[in-house]
Design goal:
single chain; alpha+beta; Thermophilic metalloprotease-like; 8-stranded antiparallel beta sheet; globular
Length: 369
């Protein structure tokens, strides 16, 4: 018997997020930890008259690759997988883990090579290009597993309830709830599309970025579940000033704490962290990762705490986040990288605010427009 939560989540992903149609080919990716949710999605894709293809990783697979694989092997992605992203019509990617710190014992240079390879970059580029052409739809969804509950300092029952509230699957009509959010956020995105400069002020923060000619994207369940953010990509050479991030950046299970960055003409000129300084420096050395590829405001107030899971945390109401590296093409970004690393800042702290063309639009965690 499939859990009602998984059935509802599968329905949202298939019917609302990527709108699966008859005859389409849809990839369902995840790990064997989430096989019950994968089955629920498989059934919903079948009901839509489409053709599902399940690809599940097994526990320990990536760790074995890091331990025994050569550099060529850890960066290799089979042509079958690359071809799938060029030929299939949709992707539902399930995020789950049996151990969120399983990469901790490995050399981070090797981990970065695996997750930030040229082939991974090719997948990013292919999906973006096909998405913009209307040929490909995708969504990332969570599986409420024990490892995520532990990271969030919750028992599995409490964490499952947290997930339901974040997804609105505790509501009678979750798809209807996401449609309401979509309508509300679209007005904010339309307003921001007319602005040219964003100025962020806060604790140890005074950052300006040009968004002239860039598009703001309304995120309301189409690409991520849970969702709840409005984002754009800054002009690549027009980010200046400083910013300190409140929450640790999580990179391949490693925490980089108390991150402080300074920018000059779009480039990171100073990068400090209280923990994992060397990892931060390594990330910034990756091609394109010394620039901001995204600036976003989290809008999901159903997410009530930081959980060390970026799928939830970047949507946390009352926060902003910026991503080093790859910039989404739909915004007009020209920045390419094999990395897209989101880092969060709490904007509910007294004195925190965002200005657009000199006008206060956001203050201490709340919109003023």
């Amino acid at each position: 018997m499939i859990s009602p939560l998984y059935r509802k989540l599968a329905e949202i992903a298939v019917k609302y997020s990527i709108k699966v149609r008859e005859g389409q080919r849809v990839i369902i990716r995840g790990s064997n930890v989430a096989q019950e949710l994968a089955l629920a999605i498989y059934i919903e894709v079948l009901k839509a008259g489409a053709h599902p293809f399940i690809s599940l990783n097994i526990e320990g697979e990536k760790e074995a690759l890091l331990k025994y694989g050569s550099d060529e092997q850890i960066t290799y992605i089979d042509k079958v997988i690359l071809d799938a992203f060029e030929e299939f019509d949709g992707l539902i990617s399930i995020r789950s883990s049996y151990n969120t710190h399983s990469f901790g014992a490995f050399d981070q240079e090797r981990v970065s090579k695996m997750v930030g390879s040229e082939n991974q970059r090719k997948i990013y580029t292919t999906t973006q290009e096909r998405e913009l052409a209307g040929e490909f739809e995708w969504v990332v969804i969570p599986f409420p597993c024990e490892a995520y509950a532990q990271e969030a300092n919750m028992d599995i029952l409490t964490y499952s309830e947290f997930v339901q509230k974040a997804l609105f699957t505790d509501k009678e009509d979750p798809i209807g709830e996401w449609q309401k959010i979509n309508k509300k956020q679209e007005k904010i995105a339309e307003y921001l599309n007319k602005k040219e400069e964003i100025h962020v002020l806060g604790e140890d923060t005074d950052l300006t970025l040009s968004v002239k000619g860039r598009k703001w994207i309304n995120c309301s369940g189409q690409r991520n579940l849970p969702d709840g953010e409005i984002f754009t990509s800054p002009v690549e050479d027009a980010v200046n000033g400083k910013i300190r991030f409140t929450y640790p950046g999580i990179y391949s299970g490693q925490e980089v704490e108390n991150i402080y960055l300074e920018f000059k003409d779009g480039i990171v000129t100073r990068a400090e962290a209280a923990k994992n300084q060397k990892l931060l420096e390594h990330i910034i050395r990756v091609d394109g990762a010394n620039k901001l590829g995204e600036f976003a405001v989290g809008t999901n107030y159903g997410i009530t705490q930081f959980t060390k899971n970026i799928l939830f945390d970047e949507k946390l109401g009352g926060t902003i986040h910026s991503a080093l590296g790859f910039g989404p093409k739909e915004t007009g970004s020209q920045n390419e990288s094999s990395i897209h690393w989101d880092i969060l800042k709490d904007m509910t702290i007294e004195g925190s605010k965002i200005l657009a063309d000199g006008e206060i639009i956001y203050k201490e965690g709340e919109w003023k427009i």
